[in-house]
Amino acid sequence: MNRPLLTVTGLSKHFGGLKAVDNVDFELFPEEILGILGPNGAGKTVCFNLICGVYKPTKGEVILDGQRIDGFSTNEIANLGVGRTFQIVKPFSSLTVLENVLVARGITRYNSLSKVWSVWQSSAEKKAALEILEHVGLADMANRKAGLLPLGYLRRLEIARALVVGSRIILLDESFSGLRPEEIGQLENLIQSIRQDGITVLLIEHNVRVTMGICDRIVVLDHGRKIAEGEPEAIQQNDRVIEAYLGRRRGKDAA
Amino acid sequence: MNAYVITIATIIVINAITVCGLNVIVGYAGQISLGHAAFVGIGAYSAALLSTKAGLSFWAALPIVIAICGFIGLLLGLPSLRVKDDFLAITTIGINFIVEAIFLYIPFFGGALGIGGIPRIMLFGMKVKGLVFFELCLVFLVLVLLICWWFTRSWAGLASFAVREEESAASSMGISPMRFKLLAFVIGTAIAGLGGALYAHYMRFISATDFSFPVSISLLSMLVLGGMGNLWAPLVGAVILGSLPEIFRPLVDYRILFYTVLLLLMIRFQPAGLLGEDSFARHVFSSVLPGGKK
């Protein structure tokens, strides 16, 4: 396999005595879909926030394409082509859906005090933003206020914004939670098509069925530690995973 | 127009300019400021000192005054914008009291006596006063409105809106929240400086109490009444809060009662301000008014 795009080594984040993430290693290879799976409180979102620069790791390294990025600020990491969504959706509520995407399109300008004075409502920018909305199936909603959309649309809006920013990697934080079954199907197709466009996807999920269905490889966390890593079939057979998570979960799903 | 009306109108326009600056900070970038009068004061005192002690003309002093206010805005914004919401409100109140105390207790700033004898503005060899001063203020108001309008259309403005709406999402899109908060703060304080300079040359006597905390509250009230984040809100708010006390002067004993009723009616029927989201005026004039809340 080729060189990893993102390497996480010995990643730890301690909040006082709580080891939210403890010595986690994994690699993300170009154009793959890697899932981070784990029960609630396993440290998945903390792991994401460490990669995105929301938290600074207590120990360990995050390396993006040969460059160490742990300790970088959130906006610096976004500038390196890492887009993300939030588990609890964070739309710019009083802006329209189109304007939400335009905010993300400004990423090439926000670092330069001379480039931020030009007009953002240009037709070329609007057209480009609309194309992205078409890609995620939100074109009809372009002129609605984002704050008025139902959750399923907001999840897609988050992905649209992440796609603009994430030219190399997009990180999806539980994008499937709270969705109806048909919406889950649409989102699975969307993620597959994103990968076909050459973008690497790292996703967090606690919905096992979805994760097994679309991920190439899976890393399983429990209580902040990595307990398994491998292809979906292998993960399904892994005793530690079943013990920590799948066993209970399967029982519930069957019921 | 008689002198009385011109005086009221001039003060209204100067307030509108000042509130435009506040709108950039509070309305566009979403950073509450309860100390805006301090920056108006810094502008007024700089203009007064530059004209009385350094002997500069209004026109020569104006760029310096605006630069001073922007720079002090940057210096004070750096530490204060690290905190949010209620804490930022308290910090900016603190700034207001400290700035007022500096004007009041340091002899260089005239102490309790303030600064008098501020010369009139000269334009084409003529003293600017009365109606001409009002018109000059109107020209500056139009300029400031143009700057604010351009800001809302620029990427800097869009970044500020994003920071106002959802800071963490904004930073995940490459926006440094601190940078754009500071930018808005500096633009806002620089505009306040312009308002202060006009005020100083209009009143020709200033003292620290002209820029005390209640003035900040009244500036913020104008903005809230007009509708935060709307381009025209400062003008609407300044006109209403500036003219009502004059119109209702015969009812002076009931003024507080009247304000209370007005406040309650606003909260009940137009919580986002007269030009705010879903307001009555917005529904009626939505096709006419450009540059609405974004």
Describe what you observe in this structure.
The complex is a heterodimer of chains A (255) and B (294). With 255 residues, chain A is α/β, with parallel strands linked by helices. In chain A, a hairpin with a 2-residue loop joins β9 and β10. Chain A has helices at residues 44-52, 74-79, 97-105, 123-135, 151-165, 181-196, 208-214, 232-237, 239-254; strands at residues 6-15, 18-28, 33-37, 59-64, 67-68, 82-84, 169-173, 200-205, 217-222, 225-230. Chain A contains 9 helices and 10 strands. In chain A, the strands form 2 sheets. Chain A has a 6-stranded mixed sheet with strand order 6-7-8-3-9-10, with helices on both faces. Chain A is globular and about 55 Å long. Chain A has a domain at 6-90 and 166-254: P-loop containing nucleotide triphosphate hydrolases (Rossmann fold, 3-Layer(aba) Sandwich). Chain B has 294 residues and is an all-alpha fold. Chain B has a single domain (3-251), classed as ABC transporter involved in vitamin B12 uptake, BtuC, CATH 1.10.3470. Chain B is built from 12 helices and 2 strands; from the N terminus they run ααααββαααααααα. Chain B has helices at residues 3-28, 36-52, 58-80, 85-105, 130-153, 155-165, 167-171, 177-203, 213-226, 233-247, 255-269, 280-285, and strands at residues 122-123, 126-127. In chain B, α1 (3-28) packs parallel to α5 and α5 (130-153) crosses α6 (155-165). The longest helix of chain B has 27 residues, at 177-203. The two termini of chain B are 37 Å apart. Classes of the chains: A alpha/beta (255), B mainly alpha (294). The interface between A and B is medium-sized, with 37 and 28 residues.
